[in-house]
Amino acid sequence: MSRGRGLRKITIEGTVFHWKAEWFYIGWDRIIMMKAWGGDKTSRPLEVLLSSPTAAAWPLRHAFDTESSYVLPHQVRTIILCALEHGWLPHTRGQPYYLEMGAAVDLGNLTVVDIENGVMQGL
Question: Given CB 3.0 to 4.6 Å as the disulfide criterion, which of 46, 53, 102, 122 pairs with 36?
Answer without folding.
Answer: 46
